[in-house]
Amino acid sequence: IIILVLCVASRAAGLKKNLKDDLSWLDDFDTINPNKPKDTIKNTKICETKECLQVANSYSESINKSADPCIDFYEFACGTWKTKNVKPPYEPVWSRASMWLSLVDQRLRDILQAQPVTEDIFPLRQAKKWYRSCMDV
C-alpha cells in the first residue's frame, strides 16, 4: 500500500522517477529514533528458517520487474507468478491460497488412502478406515 501511495503521489506531482530512487529514504528508517543504535534495525533477524526463506523467495520470484507498479501494481506484484502458475481447467479460481489448499487436499488424500499401520495414532487409523468405507463403493 505504501509503494502504491508513493507511486500515485509521484505521478500526480509529475515526478516520474526510478522507483528505487523514490524509496531511497526507507534506507534511513533507523534515524527516526536517535536513541536506538544505528545497526539495530539492519541486524534484526526476521526470516532465517529454511521454510521462511523459501516462501520469501517464492514471493520475490513472483514480481514482474518489467511492469510499472504505478500503472499496474497487480501486474508488478504478481505478474511472473501468473505466467508460471496457469489456472488448472477444473479450478474456478487460481491463486496462491487455492494452490496451497489444493496441495493440502492432495496430501490429506494421500494420507487417508494409505494403509493403516500400527505406528499410526488411533484417530488416524480410524480416519483411514472410515475414509476407505466411504470410498469403497
From TrEMBL:
Transmembrane segments: none
InterPro entries reported in the protein's UniProt record: MetalloPept_cat_dom_sf, Peptidase_M13, Peptidase_M13_dom_2, Peptidase_M13_N
Gene3D superfamilies: Collagenase (Catalytic Domain), Neutral endopeptidase , domain2
Major location category of this protein: membrane
GO cellular component: plasma membrane
Pfam families: Peptidase_M13_N
Domain named Peptidase M13 N-terminal: residues: 69-136
Compartments (UniProt record): Cell membrane
GO molecular function: metalloendopeptidase activity
GO biological-process terms attached to the record: protein processing
Membrane topology: Single-pass type II membrane protein
Top-level taxon: Eukaryota
UniProt record similarity statement: Belongs to the peptidase M13 family.
Record PANTHER family: FI17812P1-RELATED, ZINC METALLOPROTEASE FAMILY M13 NEPRILYSIN-RELATED
Protein name: Peptidase M13 N-terminal domain-containing protein
